Amino acid sequence: MQWGMANRLAQLIRSDGHVLILPVDHGYFQGPTRMLEEPRKTIEPLLPYADGLFITRGVLRSCVDPNNSVPIVLRVSGGTSMVGKDLANEGITTSMEEAIRLNVSAVGLSVFIGTDYEKESLLNLSKLVNDGERYGIPVMAVTAVGKELEKRDARYLALCCRIAAELGAHVVKTYWCEDFEKVTTGCPVPVIMAGGPRVDTEREVFDFVHDGMQKGSIGVNLGRNVWQNDFPVAMIRALRAIIHEGATPVQAEELYKSGQKEG
Ligand code: 5RP
Known about the structure:
alpha/beta; TIM Barrel; 12 helices; 10 strands; binds ribulose-5-phosphate
């Protein structure tokens, strides 16, 4: 791997090989998502605990202080919305030159495998990888399921992750699922777990993140289950303990409860 690419990945992935990315990109197709209506207010208290931010250029420029040193993964796909015809019909929204101007550590784009726009989204990924290789910018592929959350099973997600890796993605973001080792073993590049819609209890989040880490994931890109929680700082700190300190779900829950006093 060329030096620039390796250096950017090292900015993001900590020396233990693990990473906690905070995604705040949801507005690019959902508009002002609950608890992310004012992104700066959501982001600022969580920044000290995030290894990276997954974010669009618009929110980055308007809501993140350029003096901040948190590595940026720039969301560069979009062009569709929740109220439009088909979420899968995304294009590349942001050029590689813009990514370089914004001094990002990586770029991220969604692929929609099994949809009418499978080919377009996979060719978007291939183009992004070609451009990224030219400038030394790593690409994170997001295996998107749109509104079809029931697609989150090992067979489908393993297929998606493998295809993304074959096309050259440097990191793949997917959902945790039962038999998650089938997803990670079939994917020759690092796999990161997304969170999905908020689940009922914190313990459910700690359980699946811990399980995914045991089964070969390098970390998370987890948004709503952090910033829609009543105590987002306590939540992100507990997740950090699992990802970087090897905490068990029980220990993470104890940390979360003791952290509630702080926010
Ligand atoms: C939205 C995304 C998000 O980054 C991803 O879904 C992770 O966030 P969450 O944990 O809230 O699902 O790609 O398009």
